[in-house]
Amino acid sequence: MPPSSTAPSGVVASVFHRLVSRRARVREVEPVSDAFRLVTLVGEDLEGRRWAPGDMIQIGFTGLAGRAYTPLSFDPRTGVATFLGYVHGDGIASRWLASATIGEPLFLVGPRSALDLDAARRPTLFFGDETSFGTAAAIRATPEGTRGVAFSFEVNAAEASRVALERIGVTSGVTITAREPQDRHLERVESDLTRALRAEPETRCVFTGKASSIQRLYKAARRAGASAKQITNVAYWAPGRKGFSGVQR
Question: What pTM value is reported for the model?
Answer without folding.
Answer: 0.88
